[in-house]
């Protein structure tokens, strides 16, 4: 009973792989991951679980370096990163410690303020007294990794399914961040990326000289829980509910520090009734009188720009004064428009970009409309069908023997189908370069099958299985050597950050491996059953 299975296990393996590919292509549990606020059916692009890249779905591609300079081989002298950052920032007129990063593992110091020039950074490093090997354009690997995580978070929080972020390197060694977002226009993606996303709460108050501002009373990392944007039930505005952290291992918690700052600036006394209001003028930066009072105000600042100013509910102000608010830390960031509240919620959830993307300078961007992507999918399908028919025609002309030609074509198609299953299983977006890899796999696959058929039938008909196996092994050595050569040639394209070429190389190598390990041996078993009698 087990003898037929033992003799034809390679064919059975091919059948199992094809069935597995079918499950991956059409099974409900293998579809693309939906973005926040999106259901599984909306994330699926068609009847299969295949995902399409920009070339086949339309969308926007942005490729840009990160603004900044890095001092390499810095002699930190055992100082803490905070001390080094403070010392360097003190020598820069137009940068703060938030724009200076220190990475001890790389012995590097970087500045991410786009207004700082290389000469200014060099002078600051010299003035701070730190020896360094050189200054290069760009930022550290740590900052690039953090940037990619933040951008991916922004894409996910914005509900843009299928978006991807990766690091690529040019031939000259310069690093770029490559962002691809299917189905979105160029301007929408650029607006999302150009906004650095830093959110903070400042306190504006009056002193003897007019209006003063305490910056960073709450910063991005102080928030523990961040809600979704909600339309206000008291007027046309909107708000984002947040919870400020009330615990800290290093000292006073952000909630207690903010509570003390609010009480110190006089909010409990200024906001005793609902009639007490904030009179901050964002154009002049001054607090104006409202009902005869110049009350302190909270300023919501995004990317250095005040987008809203507001006072405080009397009950909340009283809790701040008595010291009970910090126990819960619940707070509302109010805005004038719902769209602003959505953007603030997105920035808080995804985090702030550690450096700016230089899109308008050295960066490039391109966009493909959805209709163009659909045309590309149609043309790719037509080209694929034509290539199959062309290969089938040449095979029939070569052998004029259905027993040899038909299994050859079916096996080649099974190889492409298996590749599609792997693409669906891995969630790899199909691009034109990947389609080119599929076509290359069809060509090289049929070449190998022709080698098998020619070697087996080179000395006339073969009826003995022993003779067949001997000839098949000779052919397989040739196929194995050719496969090894292809894998070696494609390996650099797989590991180097070369964009679409990586997809071409990955699926070409994957197709070669599937062919050598699964489809070629299965074709050999099929031929042996059809051509031999003993």
Automatic annotation (TrEMBL):
<keyword id="KW-0653">Protein transport</keyword>
<keyword id="KW-0813">Transport</keyword>
<feature type="transmembrane region" description="Helical">
    <location>
        <begin position="501"/>
        <end position="519"/>
    </location>
</feature>
<dbReference type="GO" id="GO:0005886">
    <property type="term" value="C:plasma membrane"/>
</dbReference>
<dbReference type="GO" id="GO:0006605">
    <property type="term" value="P:protein targeting"/>
</dbReference>
<comment type="subunit">
    <text>Part of the protein translocation apparatus. Forms a complex with SecF.</text>
</comment>
<keyword id="KW-1003">Cell membrane</keyword>
<dbReference type="GO" id="GO:0065002">
    <property type="term" value="P:intracellular protein transmembrane transport"/>
</dbReference>
<comment type="similarity">
    <text>Belongs to the SecD/SecF family. SecD subfamily.</text>
</comment>
<feature type="transmembrane region" description="Helical">
    <location>
        <begin position="404"/>
        <end position="426"/>
    </location>
</feature>
<feature type="transmembrane region" description="Helical">
    <location>
        <begin position="376"/>
        <end position="397"/>
    </location>
</feature>
<dbReference type="Pfam" id="PF02355">
    <property type="entry name" value="SecD_SecF_C"/>
</dbReference>
<feature type="transmembrane region" description="Helical">
    <location>
        <begin position="474"/>
        <end position="495"/>
    </location>
</feature>
<dbReference type="InterPro" id="IPR024912">
    <property type="entry name" value="SecD_arc"/>
</dbReference>
<dbReference type="InterPro" id="IPR048634">
    <property type="entry name" value="SecD_SecF_C"/>
</dbReference>
<feature type="transmembrane region" description="Helical">
    <location>
        <begin position="432"/>
        <end position="453"/>
    </location>
</feature>
<keyword id="KW-0812">Transmembrane</keyword>
<comment type="function">
    <text>Involved in protein export.</text>
</comment>
<protein>
    <recommendedName>
        <fullName>Protein-export membrane protein SecD</fullName>
    </recommendedName>
</protein>
<keyword id="KW-0811">Translocation</keyword>
<keyword id="KW-0472">Membrane</keyword>
<keyword id="KW-1133">Transmembrane helix</keyword>
<feature type="domain" description="Protein export membrane protein SecD/SecF C-terminal">
    <location>
        <begin position="366"/>
        <end position="517"/>
    </location>
</feature>
<feature type="transmembrane region" description="Helical">
    <location>
        <begin position="12"/>
        <end position="31"/>
    </location>
</feature>
<dbReference type="InterPro" id="IPR022813">
    <property type="entry name" value="SecD/SecF_arch_bac"/>
</dbReference>
